[in-house]
Amino acid sequence: MCSISFLILLSISINLFILSLMFLLMDYCIFFEWEVISLNSSSIVMTILFDWMSLLFMSFVLLIASLVIYYSKEYMSSDININRFIMLVLMFVLSMMLLIISPNMISILLGWDGLGLVSYCLVIYFQNVKSYNAGMLTALSNRIGDVAFLLAIAWMLNYGSWNYIFYLESMKNSIEMEVIGGLMVLAAMTKSAQIPFSSWLPAAMAAPTPVSALVHSSTLVTAGVYLLIRFNILLHNSFLGQLLLLLSGLTMFMAGLGANFEFDLKKIIALSTLSQLGLMMSILSMGFYKLAFFHLLTHALFKALLFMCAGAIIHNMHNSQDIRLMGGLGVYMPLTTSCFNVANLALCGMPFLAGFYSKDMILEIVSLNYINFFSFFLFFFSTGLTVCYSFRLVYYSMTGELNCGSLNMLSDEGWIMLRGMSGLLIMSIIGGSMLSWLIFSTPYMICLPMYMKLLTMFVCIVGGFMGYLISNVSLFHLNKSFNKYLISYFFGSMWFMPYISTYGIINFPLYLGGVVYKSFDQGWSEFLGGQNLFNSLIEISNWNFFLQNNNLKIYLLLFVLWITFLFSFFLLF
Predict the structure, then answer these.
(1) Tell me, what's the pLDDT at 87?
(2) Which of 32, 62, 223, 424 would give a disulfide with 305, using CB separation of 3.0 to 4.6 Å?
(3) Its pTM surpasses 0.70
(4) Which residues of 28-65 are buried (b: 16+ CB within 10 A; e: fewer)?
(5) Is 236 helix (H, G, I), strand (E, B) or coil?
(6) Do both 288 and 212 map to the same domain?
(7) Do residue 316 and residue 444 come from a single domain?
(8) What's the domain count of the chain?
(9) Tens of pLDDT, residues 48-77
(10) Domain boundary among 181, 199, 233
(11) Cα separation of 468 and 470, whole Å?
């Protein structure tokens, strides 16, 4: 089933890519309406939007999904339910397709909820307590966005149909469209894990690694960014855009800082995804939706590769994810670590790899634009942090000797996994330049002073050096000082957000529930209600039992009493 799915998805991906090129060059856009059923004057119509953006995104999603499924053939080979796993992944991709091609709120909701439901099934796939908790946190965090989506659908009743694409431009200054825009931003923030909904994204690492590669590159977390790209008109020069800029900038900063204190390989890469999502959201909120889309596509390529390499390393390390137990992997797994390093360098923005074209352009546009110093600081400092945790990760995993034991069975023998990774390796190298030539018809002319041009490079070099210092020198190693422990714990736990969004929210309702249960269910309600009724019924039942058990004696006693009563009555009169 893996091989068939791989071939079908890959062929569809190539065809969609060719179509997207045609649509891009000829400036085509097809709005397709399919009447599903018509009854009297009512009809159910399915609307589909094909433009260069939706076709290009679909081709990338299907390319990554096909390679992930091919990779899963070996990675999940020991799983007896592998066909069920592949079916879940295909349902996941299908939901994303529905979301991408829909210009209609109702059909977007079908894809949106499909992603939420299937992601829950995939996160709890390994069926242990940690997976169940992570799945519940993921599902409940995304429910907030779903409620916002349903409210937006209700507000769309102010217009003639749910095809939002008709009304965005003409109604953008109306109060109804502003409310819809606010609700869409809330929905996108939950799906793309922006502050304060960030805690579910690292928790979702409980899913199998191929799922993480798919979720964190091109499907679930990018759905929110893609939705806001479609609604970008409402963000331009508005309070919503400014709010989103602040929250996404803080998300980018928080995730980059947290990744430097983390030791779980998959969580580090998850936090790097969160940081990049913050970058996409922040540049989108400034009005550059094409740049956000460009970074979305390039990021999808190297992030999927990064997760697939991490999966191969974890697979060879016998399911150990702690980077402190790794070391010298370049000697034992040269091909895997080469792919891993290329993906890491693309993430850092190494010149002429995929990430460079989008990240460098975003930072230069930020330098050119009117923006306050705080946002400017968040952009550049977060870029430095990205290089910092990437170098730290490389230092822990690639240098020195293996730290997990003298006997090891590490090798590059997983040829199916390596073939899956090599497809993305090529795209991670050439994808950025190819997309920059396609998406931007004329090159961006960004004229900056020399020191501003070199600022990005300087920040990256300083970030890399700091990553080396954090790893090599015991600069940030914990000692017995309580303050140092608290600071590193605060930064390492995403500013206590996982605790605030779980214990913080549920603690008071649970306490209140306990009080209500104790006071009412086990208190007055029980005393006057169920317990009182129970005691009364028992008493009546005892009387009834007594009467039925002694009926002859009672009958004779009553007869004697009756005769006595009659006799005394006759004596009186």
Answers:
(1) 92
(2) 424
(3) yes
(4) eeeeeeeeeeeeeeeeeeebbbbbbbbbbbbbbbbbbb
(5) coil
(6) no
(7) yes
(8) 3
(9) 999 999 999 999 999 999 999 998 888 888
(10) 233
(11) 6
